[in-house]
Structure formats: C-alpha cells, structure tokens
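Translate structure to sequence.
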C-alpha cells in the first residue's frame, strides 16, 4: 500500500503544520459542534446559526489558503521544534477526549477531520459545501508531507466507512455491540494501510460523538471531496496520483457488498435513519449519492489509462465488483429520470473503461454481456431506425426545428447517448468473444464460474455465447427488415447517423465494425447444427460490411474532404480517425472490386436472403424475395449508374484529402507525421489510375 515505507512519527515540520491546522479548526469550528449537549444536539439550524457557521468556515478556508507553504528556514527550526514537539506535548494539545489520543502522533489529523466531517451532518447545503472546501484546502496544505497526506486520505475513507457501517449498526444493535462492530470495521479498513486499527477505532469513536445524525448526504460530500482532490492531482500531474488511486481502490474493495448491508443493492449507503430521512422516501438523494460515488469511480479509470499495463493488475482487482455495480439500477424506478440516466451513463462509462483491462479473461466479458442484457435492455434495443427529422440549414436545438418537427418526434439526447454507449459495449464484447477461438492470449474460467454460464442460450463455449448474443440482438432489432440491399443500406445509414452525433464514439465503433467479417468466419468454422441458430449474427456480418460502411460514412460527410481534415487534426479523435482511414484504405486495396462496384454487396445480401428463406422453408417469402430480385434487375442500368457515382464521389474526396495533407505537410502545419496516411492514399491513387 502507498506510504507503507514512511516513518511512523511525522517530522517536526509536519507536526508544526498539523498543529497550526488543528488549532485553527478547533478554535474556530469546534464551538459550533459543542454549543449544545450531545443529547439535545440537532442538525436543524436557525438562519442566524447558519450565518455564524458559514462565516467561521469562510475564515478558516481563507486562512489555510493564505498560509505560506514555503519551508521554514534553518534559523527558525530550533525555535519551532521547541514550541511544537507533538500533539501530546504541553506546547500543543488537541481537543480530543483523553481516551482517544493516537499513539502515532496523528491526533491532530483525527481531530481536524472529525470536526469538519461533523459539520457535514448539519441541515445546510451551504455549510456542507463550505466544509468540503476546507477538506480540499487541508489536502493541498498537507500534500508536501506525503506520509501525513496519505493518512489524511485514509481518514476520509474511514469517515465514509463509519457513516456507511456504524450508522447502520446503530439502528439495529445496542451501543456496546455497535462499538464492537466499529472495532471490527476498523480492523478491516486499516488492514494493509498506514493507519493502525486502534487509531481507526479511536477516530470512529470521536467522529460518532461529533456527527450526531449520520446522513447519506455526508457520503455525497466526501465523495465529492475525493473526486476533486483526484482532479487536482491529475491537473498538476502529481506523483501522488498513483498513491491516491491505489488507496481508493483498496478502500473500495473493503466496502461491504453483502445483500442488505452494501453500497450498491438499491441503497448506495446502508444508513437507517428516521422516516423523514429514509432512503425509500428520498429517492432523489439516493440518486445523488449513487451519482457521486460513480463519478469518483469513473475518475479512477481515465480513458488514457487503457494502455497503462502497469496499472492493469490494480484495475483487474475490481473486475469482480462490476456485476455489483449494475444493482444500482434495481431499485431506481422512483428516482428522477435525469438521475437515473446519469447513473446508467456512469456505469456504462465505467464498464467501457474497464473492458480493455479485463478482456483477456472471457468470463469477465461474458459477465459484462449478462449485465447489459439484464439492466440495459431499453437502450440496447431502442429503435435506431426512427430518427428525428432534421431540417436542412437549421441548427440543432433551434426553435425553427421545433416548429417544423413535433416534440414527440425528437428523441431525448441523453437516451440516444445511452443507446450509443450500450450498443458499443455490447458489440465490442460480443465480437471479442465471437472471435476468441483463435486467440491464445485469452483465458477462460467460465466453466468454473457459475455466474457466467447460467444465461439463456449459453453454453460452455464462449465463442458460441458471443455469436448467439449478436444473433439474438440483431434478429430482435432488424432481421425482418432485411429484404433487399436498400433495406440493409438504410440500416447502416441509421446506425452511422446515431453515432455521428458524438465524434469520439463514432470512431471507436467504426474501428470495432472493421472486425465484423470475422463473425462470419467464426460461424463457418462451427458445426453445421449451430449455424441455423446464428442466422442473425451471419446477417450482421454481411450487412455491416466494412467496405460498404466506409462508402456510407463518406456519403454522410457529403464527400467533403475538409471534414476529414478536421477529424484528423482534432485533439480528441485525430488518432482514431487516422487509424480508421489507414485500415480502410488497406482494406480497399485488398477488396478493390467491392469498393468500385457496390453490386457485390447487393449480391451478398440477396444470396443470404435466398439461403435464409430456404432454411426456414418459407415458400411465400422466397417467392417475394425472388420477385424483389427481378425488380432489381429491371432497373439495373439506373442503379448501376448510381453505384458508379458512389465510387467517383469517394475517389474525388480521398484524392482531394491527399492533396490537402501534402500541402499542409510541406508547410509544416499538420500536427503529426502524415506520411503513413499519404502512402496509403498514394496506393489508392495508383489503383484509381489503373481502373
């Protein structure tokens, strides 16, 4: 664990800083907690009481931020060390009860945090916000003392454990048993950390004295504090960022997940309070707490960490927690829609960010798919073929758009965002499993993992499981709509239009769909008895042909090469766009006939439809399909001209892109080396010249 090698007793500079903080916080804030006897203390405040506390909090925050953080020069060291030796000396005395002083010299830290966290139980959002700001200011002031700062973070997590466990026990058992329960919790929290179990137990006891009403809102405030601390660490590129992440993951693993006593089984915190504050009657607050926890959770796994192999072992440790996260959704029917949407968004984001770290084990991927099936059915099967009508030359969100299109036809943006996330994660996981047969790097523990092979239509073969998931999904979405190539093209266009609204999601799904042909190859390698059950997956592989998708994507861009340039120089999607263009150009070189003549795509669709109808022995459908084929042939000349125009438009666009990149590169205006892309475009130009 981080900080394990640190000395047990802080140096004198650290003790001096802690003593200053302790005196400031205790003198300014403790009187507001102890103004009334414990038995009569209440969280409700009058307006005047709230004003006085806010003034005191503001002064403390301003004082901490105003302190000079420079080290004390050598001339002051002797004097300072005589004045402030430790918390237990006469020169400075913490305001802790005599029986709760720490043995390791961190009484000041426990005193500071227990006082500030104690203020969080007061019924004032302004006070909660100001107290949280003080915790962040204290974190910044202690950051130069790594050992003390790690102790600070550990005690904040200990406060979270205290609120989520001791408050639960307090409503179910007597005080003596509650004390024992807190001691047991302290041992669990402090195991393999820098803080001793006895210190955690003392801290919990003091916190309980100062935090009369343990409300779930305290959890929200502390999660917000930890989230902002992490953001500041990332912003400053601090070396302690990894320590914070490791420490947070350690404590997340220590959180209780048992049914009825957990952070995620419909109750983010198992806090039992009076009826006025019960979770069942305050669903909105539950949604806020769950959202704040998920926000912190997602911040621990940045998108940039996907290639960080050093942290992979740490992230994999949380793989077992993924199924539990989805239980946030089980009892959220009564919370506001916006909070429910936010929680779903964060859970999907977390699973997307964790997937690269856990996809080497098939059992983890299977569990992700089962979570999507169980908790994200609505966004996963949301119709993607009923797009809101968008008027030409009309800005999105414009009142003119609302006047031209009824509100009922406009899809909710957040719903479409969830649909994009769910569909990407589903297809990504399914394709990984479907193509896992030849990947020796993949490990599978499914046969001994009961949670992974109880699913509907699931066998012990992960390869088949992935294929069957795609097949069921595609049949449910649009298999009946595939009657000819026009219908399949409409499906591809609708799918691309769904993702065109978010550039970052667009390119990761385009890159994923380049593997669609592998699905057909995987089915061909399977036993004949399974192929009829995988008809949906087979058709998906044919409909989402990468060459055809490339054509349709360029058409949605109106063959504007300057849009491609904008994508390529974008800080957010430039790398992914370059990867996609390189792979597509390489694919076009190997499938030139299919790129030049789109009738190759049509022939594949028609051939599959005939085979499907023969398999189903549906004579009427087969006759209808044959008539459709005749109709296609009767307008062959007109459609052939249209197909040729597709190729010519794509040719002009890509060659214009080549000239523009060459010009920018010569003027040294392109942000990175475009030579690999220019080489592929040159090869494309040679093929065009030969055609």
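Result:
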């Amino acid at each position: 664990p981080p900080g394990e090698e640190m000395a047990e007793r802080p140096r004198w500079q650290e003790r001096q800083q802690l003593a200053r903080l302790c005196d400031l916080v205790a003198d300014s804030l403790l009187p507001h907690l102890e103004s009334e006897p414990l038995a009569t203390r209440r969280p409700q405040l009058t307006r005047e009481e709230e004003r006085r506390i806010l003034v005191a909090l503001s002064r403390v925050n301003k004082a901490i931020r105003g302190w000079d953080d420079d080290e004390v020069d050598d001339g002051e060291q002797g004097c300072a060390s005589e004045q402030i030796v430790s918390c237990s000396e006469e020169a400075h005395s913490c305001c802790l009860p005599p029986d709760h002083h720490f043995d390791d010299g961190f009484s000041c830290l426990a005193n500071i945090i227990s006082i500030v966290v104690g203020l969080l139980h007061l019924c004032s959002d302004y006070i909660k916000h100001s107290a949280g700001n003080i915790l962040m200011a204290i974190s910044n002031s202690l950051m130069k003392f790594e050992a003390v700062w790690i102790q600070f973070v550990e005690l904040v997590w200990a406060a979270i454990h205290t609120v989520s466990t001791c408050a639960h026990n307090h409503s179910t058992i007597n005080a003596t048993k509650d004390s024992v329960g807190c001691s047991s919790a302290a041992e669990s929290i402090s195991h393999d950390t820098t803080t001793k179990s006895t210190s955690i137990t003392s801290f919990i006891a003091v916190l309980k004295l100062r935090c009369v009403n343990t409300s779930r809102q305290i959890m929200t405030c502390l999660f917000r504090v930890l989230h902002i601390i992490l953001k500041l660490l990332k912003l400053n590129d601090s070396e302690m960022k990894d320590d914070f992440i490791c420490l947070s993951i350690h404590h997340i693993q220590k959180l209780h997940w048992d049914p009825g006593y957990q952070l995620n089984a419909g109750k983010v915190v198992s806090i039992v309070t009076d009826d006025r504050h019960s979770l069942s009657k305050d669903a909105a607050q539950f949604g806020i707490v769950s959202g704040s926890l998920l926000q912190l959770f997602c911040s621990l796994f940045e998108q940039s960490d996907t290639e960080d192999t050093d942290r992979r072992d740490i992230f994999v440790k949380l793989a077992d927690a993924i199924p539990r996260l989805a239980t946030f959704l089980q009892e959220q029917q009564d919370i506001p829609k916006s909070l429910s949407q936010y929680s779903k968004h964060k859970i999907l984001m977390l699973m997307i960010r964790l997937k690269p770290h856990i996809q080497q084990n098939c059992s983890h991927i299977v569990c992700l798919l089962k979570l999507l099936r169980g908790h994200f059915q609505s966004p996963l099967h949301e119709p993607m073929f009923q797009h809101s009508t968008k008027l030409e030359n009309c800005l999105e969100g414009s009142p003119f758009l609302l006047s031209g299109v009824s509100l009922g036809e406009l899809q909710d943006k957040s719903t479409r965002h969830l649909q994009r996330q769910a569909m990407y994660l589903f297809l990504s996981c399914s394709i990984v499993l479907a193509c896992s047969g030849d990947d020796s790097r993949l490990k599978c523990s499914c046969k001994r993992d009961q949670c992974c092979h109880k699913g509907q239509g699931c066998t012990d073969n992960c390869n088949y499981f992935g294929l069957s998931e795609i097949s069921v999904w595609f049949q449910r979405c649009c298999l009946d709509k595939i009657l000819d190539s026009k219908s399949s093209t409409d499906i591809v266009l609708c799918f691309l239009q769904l993702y065109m609204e978010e550039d970052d999601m667009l390119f990761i799904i385009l890159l994923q769909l380049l593997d669609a042909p592998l699905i057909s190859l995987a089915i061909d390698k399977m036993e004949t008895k399974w192929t009829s059950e995988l008809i949906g997956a087979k058709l998906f592989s044919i409909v989402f042909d990468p060459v055809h998708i490339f054509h349709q994507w360029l058409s949605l861009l109106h063959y504007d090469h300057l849009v491609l340039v904008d994508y390529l120089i974008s800080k957010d999607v430039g790398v992914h766009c370059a990867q996609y263009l390189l792979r597509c150009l390489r694919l076009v070189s190997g499938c030139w006939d299919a790129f030049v003549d789109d009738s190759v795509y049509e022939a594949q669709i028609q051939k599959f439809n005939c085979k499907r109808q023969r398999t189903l022995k549906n004579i009427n459908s087969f006759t209808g399909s044959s008539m459709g084929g005749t109709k296609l042939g009767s307008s062959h000349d007109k459609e052939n001209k249209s197909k040729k125009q597709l190729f010519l438009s794509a040719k002009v666009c890509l060659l214009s892109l080549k000239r523009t990149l060459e010009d920018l590169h010569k003027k040294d205006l392109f942000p990175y080396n475009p030579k690999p892309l220019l080489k592929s475009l040159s090869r494309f130009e040679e093929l065009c010249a030969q055609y």
